[in-house]
Amino acid sequence: MSKRQQDVSALLEALTQAEEKVQREKAQKRAIANQVVAATQKLPADERQAVLEQVSALLSADELTEKFTRLLSQHKVPLTNVASFQQLLVQATRRRQLFNFQPEWKLNNKRYAYQFIDELGVKRPETFAFNQPLASIEPKSATVLKPENGSSSHGVFIFDEQGGAFEVRTGETLPTVSDAMAKASGMVEQGTIKKDSWLLEEFIGDFEGGKPLPPVDLKFYCFFGEVGFVLEVERANETRYCEWLPDGRLAETGRYEGRSFVGSGFTNEQLEIAKRVSQAIPTPFMRIDFIKSKNAFSFGEFTPRPGQFSSFNKEFDRYLGECYLSAEAKVLAHLSSK
What we know:
five-stranded antiparallel β-sheet, D-amino Acid Aminotransferase, Chain A, domain 1, 13 strands, six-stranded antiparallel β-sheet, alpha+beta, ATP-grasp domain-containing protein, nucleotide-binding, ATP-grasp
């Protein structure tokens, strides 16, 4: 066995031991919870209710046995600690592995996404080239080059009015179009971009001195017709983030410490557009990304499984999980009524 294989084997063994320790601690936690529940039977009804609510808040979904679940349900205690956005998105991934069809993932393809958006009559960038190898693309000023199935802004370049380009992910300014095309080609060769299939589209944004002012991204976390959360992203000299609740209050998510700013937010009209698009997608969750400049608000892309979905703090992860479960129930009711 090679040294590398030995290292991997040792890490797997450590991971197994850590899992065994977690399960022992969970078993101990369930035993203590049983003792607490038994002790509450001697308390007055109002005090018993308060204790059961605390028990519910301290047990996660995999710690709620049938006995606990039945007891809490009988006492109408909300299971406030079981919804998890992170776990629900992981489970959605497993569902896709088991049965490879989920409507939200079809929309992950920009071609289908644009067809869908066109049918809804929502503004999107004009397209100049679609599903083309990089060698066939002819860049021009005030356009954006994107890989057809890219993510996290990899391979996205804005061509300016002076023969240069701006790389969205890194914020780097490239002096010539050829430099940008060479860098995009390198991403294909390195496997950062998995398929040599690109689109060239209108730049939704403004220029200053011939150079692009990167537009702001407004990413709406949508739950079948409702918006739970909005992420505003500014990509100027550095990438900064502002997080909003749908009522316009700032959200406390536990993310982006040291990289946040107070943005300009969104209008009620923009919020309603996101809701309308979400309502047309029969799935519990879809992040719908829009591009905002001084004079325009345009659809960008659909994101079924956002990056960093596991980085929310516990409270916000639970809040988004509740949004997901509520939307899932609405989707089932919607489909059963047809």
